[in-house]
Design a protein that fits this description.
Elements: E1 3-4, E2 11-12, H1 25-48, E3 64-66, E4 76-78, H2 80-103, H3 114-122, E5 141-144, E6 147-150, E7 155-157, E8 160-161, E9 175-176, E10 180-181, E11 196-197, E12 200-201, E13 206-207, E14 211-212, E15 215-218, E16 224-227, E17 232-233, E18 242-243, H4 246-252, E19 266-267, E20 270-271, E21 277-278, E22 283-289, E23 301-305, E24 310-313, E25 318-322, E26 328-332, E27 344-351, E28 355-366, E29 371-383, E30 388-400, E31 408-411, E32 414-420, E33 427-433, E34 439-445, E35 458-463, E36 467-472, E37 482-486, E38 492-497, E39 503-504, H5 505-513, E40 526-528, E41 534-536, E42 544-548
Parallel strand pairs: 3-4, 7-9, 8-10, 13-17, 14-18, 21-39
Antiparallel strand pairs: 1-2, 5-6, 11-12, 15-16, 19-20, 22-42, 23-24, 24-25, 25-26, 27-28, 28-29, 29-30, 31-32, 32-33, 33-34, 35-36, 36-37, 37-38, 40-41, 41-42
Helix pairs in contact: 2-3
Length: 549
C-alpha cells in the first residue's frame, strides 16, 4: 500500500502491493518534485540567514586545511599528509635519539616508546671541560662541552733526543713515553781542567807564563821543530812564550857550536870563535876521489867539458870521465886532442874508443896585426888501428883583447865563448852554431864600475849549466876580490865583493894550490858528474872536491 515521507510528505509506492498500479506521472512524479523544490527553496531562504564562524580552540567553525608540519598556527587543520609527515619526522628524531644513546653506551631501540626512552636520556651526564683534539693522542676519542672529537696529538713513544753542538735542538710536539736525552760523550782529555761539560770535568792543564820546550828537532828543510808541553797556553806575550835552551838548540843542530861561528858573533846564545871566512857565491866540500894520473902543472889540464864530465890530461894523453859520487874512470887512452900550443879543448861532442869529436879554443897575439886573435874550431879524431888521426872540420876567427883561452863551453848543443872588443874594451858572451861555428848572437856583459876597464882583466871560468864565473884579477887592492856569475845571456845572476876584513874562500884555494890570483883561471876547473853534482879539480889538490855554487 502507498505511503508518504515524514519530512516532505512525498508519495511512495509499495512494490509488493502497488506493483500492478498504473504509473501516475502527476502524483508519483511531478507532485513529489514540486514538494522537493519547495522544500529546497525554504532551506535556501533559511541558509541565507545563517552565519558560520571560523573555528577556534573554543568553538566550532570553518577551518582551513594545511600540509605544514613545522608551523605554530592554531586556526588551521592538519591534513592526512601533514599528519603522516609529522609522524615520519617523529620516527626520524626517535632514531637519532636512539643512535645518540647507543653511541654513549646506553642500550636503546626504535621499537621502544618515548616513555621508555626519556628516562634513559635523563641518565646521561653532559660532557664538560676544555680539552681539544690536539690534547688527545692521535686515534683516541673523547668529548667536551662541544661534543665528541678525535685526538690528533702524535705519539712519539720512547724517543731519544740527540744534542747537536751549540745549536738548540727543537723537540717535536707530541706525547712521549720513556723518552730520553742521549748521553753526551765528553773526552776529558780535550777539555780544560777548569771546565765541566755534562758532568765531566776536563783534564787539560792550563799553562801560564813562560814555558820550557819539552824537546826540539829539525825538519827535513832545516827548520826548527819545537815540542811544547801538553796543555793549553793562551799565546802571545806573557802567556805564550816557549823557551828553547841552548842545549836543546844544539841537540837539534849539532853544528851550532863556537867552532862554526865567526869570532865575535853570537847566534842564539852561542858565541863564535872561528876565523872569519866568507864567500856568498860558492863553497868547497871535502875531497871525494883522485884522478888515475895526477896533473903535472897548471897547463896539464888542456881539455875538459864542464857539462859532460870529461877531463883531458896532456901528460897522460888520456880522457877521463867523472861519474856519480866523483868517481873517475879512463874513457880513452893514448890520444892527443890538442892541435895548437895555446889551445884547450872545451867540449867533447863524441867520445869512443875509435872516434872522438872535440871543440877547441885558442888565442894568440899576432904582431903583424898588432892584436890578439882567438879561434874556435871543431875537430874529429879517428883511430886507424895504430894511431889517432886528427882533422879540423871548421874553425872561425874571433878578435879578442887577451881573453883567457878557457873562456868557452859546450852547452845544449851550442857553443858559448867570451869576446872582448879591442876598441871599446867591452866584453860580450857570444853564442855559436855547432854545425859551422857561425855567430848566432852576442850579448854585452855589464860589469860593475869597480871592475877595471869593464872587466878586461877578469878571468872567465866556465861552470856547468851554461854559467861563467868571473874573477876580478886586476884590483887596486890585493886583499880585495870580486866575483860574479853570468848566464848564457850575459846577465849577472849573482855577485860578491869581499871586504878587506874577510878571509875569502878563494884565498884558501890560492894558499892550498900555491898560485897567484892572475894564474887562477888556469888552475880552477869545475866538472859536472853523471850524478848532477859539481866537482872542483884545481891543480895540486890531487883530486876532486865537491863544489857548491
Amino acid at each position: 500500500m502507498a505511503s508518504n515521507t515524514p519530512n516532505l510528505n512525498l508519495l511512495k509506492k509499495d512494490p509488493v502491493t502497488d506493483g500492478n498500479d498504473t504509473f501516475n506521472i502527476r502524483t508519483m512524479l511531478n507532485e513529489n518534485w514540486d514538494k522537493i523544490d519547495a522544500a529546497v527553496g525554504e532551506v535556501r531562504e533559511e541558509l541565507q540567514d545563517i552565519e558560520i564562524p571560523n573555528a577556534s580552540l573554543n568553538k566550532a567553525g570553518i577551518v582551513q586545511l594545511s600540509n605544514e608540519t613545522s608551523g605554530s598556527r592554531e586556526n588551521v587543520a592538519a591534513t592526512e599528509k601533514a599528519v603522516s609527515q609529522a609522524f615520519q619526522a617523529g620516527n626520524e628524531r626517535k632514531a637519532e635519539v636512539v643512535a645518540a644513546l647507543v653511541a654513549l653506551g646506553v642500550s636503546a631501540s626504535t621499537s621502544e616508546t618515548w616513555a621508555q626512552l626519556i628516562p634513559k636520556m635523563a641518565t646521561i651526564i653532559k660532557a664538560s671541560g676544555n680539552a681539544t683534539a690536539a690534547d688527545l693522542l692521535i686515534g683516541k676519542t673523547a668529548s667536551n662541552a662541544n661534543g665528541p672529537f678525535t685526538g690528533t696529538m702524535p705519539d712519539r713513544g720512547a724517543a731519544t733526543i740527540n744534542p747537536s753542538g751549540t745549536a738548540a735542538v727543537t723537540i717535536p710536539d707530541g706525547a712521549y713515553k720513556g723518552a730520553k736525552v742521549a748521553q753526551v760523550s765528553v773526552p776529558a782529555a780535550k777539555v780544560l781542567n777548569d771546565t765541566t761539560i755534562a758532568g765531566v770535568k776536563g783534564t787539560v792543564p792550563i799553562l801560564t807564563g813562560v814555558r820550557n820546550a819539552s824537546g826540539v828537532a829539525q825538519w827535513g828543510d832545516g827548520a826548527l821543530a819545537v815540542y811544547p808541553e801538553a796543555g793549553y797556553q793562551k799565546g802571545g806575550a806573557g802567556d805564550g812564550e816557549i823557551k828553547v835552551s841552548i842545549g836543546q838548540l844544539q841537540q837539534a843542530e849539532p853544528d851550532l857550536k863556537p867552532d862554526n861561528i865567526i869570532s865575535g858573533v853570537n847566534i842564539l846564545g852561542v858565541t863564535g870563535i872561528a876565523l872569519k871566512i866568507k864567500n856568498k857565491l860558492f863553497s868547497i866540500g871535502s875531497k871525494v876521489s883522485s884522478l888515475p894520473s895526477k896533473a903535472t902543472n897548471n897547463y896539464d889540464i888542456t881539455g875538459k867539458d864542464v857539462n859532460k864530465g870529461y877531463i883531458y890530461l896532456a901528460s897522460a894523453k888520456a880522457i877521463y870521465k867523472v861519474g856519480s859520487g866523483g868517481s873517475v874512470t879512463t874513457a880513452v887512452s893514448n890520444i892527443n886532442v890538442i892541435g895548437h900550443t895555446q889551445s884547450v879543448v872545451f867540449g867533447f861532442i863524441t867520445v869512443s874508443s875509435t872516434y872522438v869529436e872535440t871543440l877547441e879554443y885558442w888565442d894568440q897575439y899576432e904582431s903583424a896585426r898588432n892584436s890578439w886573435y882567438g879561434y874556435v874550431a871543431r875537430a874529429k879524431h879517428t883511430y886507424n888501428g895504430s894511431q889517432w888521426i886528427k882533422e879540423y872540420l871548421w874553425n872561425v876567427e874571433v878578435i879578442n883583447d887577451s881573453v883567457p883561452n878557457q873562456a868557452a863551453q859546450y852547452y845544449n848543443n851550442e857553443i858559448f865563448n867570451i869576446y872582448i872588443d879591442p876598441t871599446s874594451l867591452r866584453s860580450y858572451l857570444q853564442r855559436r852554431n855547432i854545425a859551422n861555428g857561425s855567430l848566432i848572437s852576442s850579448k854585452q856583459i855589464n860589469f860593475p864600475s869597480s871592475w877595471a876597464d869593464y872587466g878586461r882583466y877578469a878571468s872567465f871560468i866556465p861552470l856547468p849549466g851554461g854559467l861563467f864565473l868571473l874573477i876580478n884579477t886586476w884590483s887596486s887592492s890585493t886583499t880585495k876580490y870580486s866575483y860574479m856569475v853570468i848566464d848564457i845571456n850575459g846577465i849577472i845572476i849573482s855577485s860578491y865583493d869581499q871586504s878587506t876584513t874577510e878571509l875569502d874562500m878563494m884565498e884558501i884555494i890560492l894558499t892550498i894550490s900555491n898560485e897567484t890570483l892572475k894564474n887562477l883561471y888556469d888552475n880552477l876547473h869545475v866538472i859536472k858528474g853523471d850524478d848532477g853534482v859539481n866537482y872542483l879539480y884545481p891543480f895540486n889538490f890531487g883530486g876532486l872536491y865537491k863544489f857548491n855554487i
